[in-house]
Amino acid sequence: MLKFLFFIIFLIPLCLLNKVFWMVQNCLFLIGFMFIFLNYYSNYWMNISYYFGCDMISFGLILLSIWICGLMLMASELIYFNKNYENLFLFMILILLLLLILTFSSISLFNFYLFFESSLIPTLFLIIGWGYQPERLQSGVYLLFYTLLASLPMLLGIFYFYYINNSLLFMFLLNDYNNFFLYLCMILAFLVKMPMFLVHLWLPKAHVEAPVSGSMILAGILLKLGGYGLIRVFSFLTLLGVKYNFYFISISILGGVLVSFICLRQMDLKSLIAYSSIAHMGIVLSGLMTMFLWGLSGSYSLMIAHGLCSSGLFCLANISYERLGSRSLLINKGLMTLMPSMTLWWFLLCSANMACPPTLNLLGEISLLNSVISWSWFSMVGLSLLSFFSAAYTLYLYSFSQHGKFNNMMFSYSGGVNREYLLLFLHWFPLNLLILKSESCFLFL
User: Fold this and answer.
1) What is the pTM of this model?
2) pLDDT tens-digit profile of 294-353?
3) What are the Cα distances from residue 426, in Å, to 31, 104, 140?
4) How many whole angstroms from its chain centre is CA 393?
5) Where are the alpha helices (DSSP H) in 40-85?
6) CA angle, corner 27, sides to 417 and 67, nearest 5?
7) Angle, nearest 10°, between helix axes 238-263 and 379-402?
8) Which among 210, 258, 332, 402 is placed 20 to 30 Å from 244, CA to CA?
9) Integer angstrom CA distances of residue 417 from 104, 118, 339, 414, 423
10) H-state helical runs in 234-378
């Protein structure tokens, strides 16, 4: 792991130079390919040390972090051309990537908590520094207080674990606790980060005010921190999980259905995509909390798939916003007339969002349906509604934005540029390619 960390640390001084924007982006893709080829053929535990290590769960999420950070730079070309503090922007993304890699490779509970919370700070700077409207300050405060307030009980829980076990390494923590408050303290921070329905209000605000890079990292990686944290924490809270998880599974399934209704009445492109993320994370959370093999494997594969798919949809929303200056669906309609070649990408990514074959989303959702229905037959009602309305709001997004009469006749035709097509291809292609290597999602346990 050290070679990748040093690679990123030594990229940081380049941010002081001019005209290194694209070089840093190419270096991030180089790190990604190095990480694939150097680590994938190793054993189950790779590059393990006293504080850091990488197993199959970490491997996929670290790779996703590097990939999304490279694509964030590709999507933020306007920051480079407008000279909008592009060096500081590069610095924030590299620091964020460094913290994310340290988070996913921590094998100590305190290290994980430290880097997990630290990754919030660069994200906050991205939203406040490069957001679109003055309301970004309010959304930044929402993000900060929602996540910090839920994280403080977790810190107390970590101190309690150290007092009992004299160690905070994941593999040395015992599994014989019977304390509901300890259970709540340890998982509350992750439920807010996912986010679970009822503690989700910070997410739409943060997404709507964030720049495209902020939305991509929020949807692509930071929502996955919650799921990753739950997988790690449930390894030593199994008994408590079996006892109390049904509360959160019920809230997640019911919340997913309610959020799907909210999606159907959104008129803001980014807000609709943000609420759809909450619905998808609801089914991930319910599958994860059943604590079956199907649920854990399905939630892991859907987290990877959703990271690529949701990030690509935010890129598409930004492409329309750059041309029309608005995210409203009332203005962003008839895009088939304005940008006919971009309609194909809208179709491909919308179909991935509603889990059409051959995307990785389909594999994840089938596994999660297996898991939750085998946990309780009664949950089939909620899951069928969730699947139906997921398709309904995705079709609503696609048909409302692509069809209809285009209002603004200043543009007769506007093609995308090669950078945008490459950006969307690099989101969509891994999403469909990973289905060929689907066994890697089921080998990590």
Assistant:
1) 0.94
2) 999 999 999 999 999 999 999 999 999 988 888 899 888 888 888 888 999 999 999 999
3) 16, 23, 29
4) 20
5) 56-75, 77-81
6) 65
7) 40
8) 258
9) 35, 36, 11, 9, 10
10) 238-263, 269-290, 293-324, 335-338, 340-353, 360-375
- Per DSSP, 222 falls in state I
What contacts 2, CB < 8 A, 6 or more positions away? 47
- Provide the token pair at 89: 């922007």
CA–CA distance, 233 with 228 (Å, rounded to integer) = 9
First CA to last CA distance, the chain: 22
Series of mean pLDDT values for 10-residue runs along the chain (445 residues): 88 89 93 81 64 86 94 91 88 95 93 93 92 86 87 92 90 82 92 91 90 92 93 90 92 95 93 94 94 91 95 94 87 85 94 92 93 93 94 94 73 75 95 85 59
pLDDT at 411: 56
Contact 269, 317 (CB under 8 A): yes
C-alpha span between 184 and 157 (Å, rounded): 9
Burial group, residue 423, by CB count within 10 angstroms (0-12, 13-18, 19+): buried
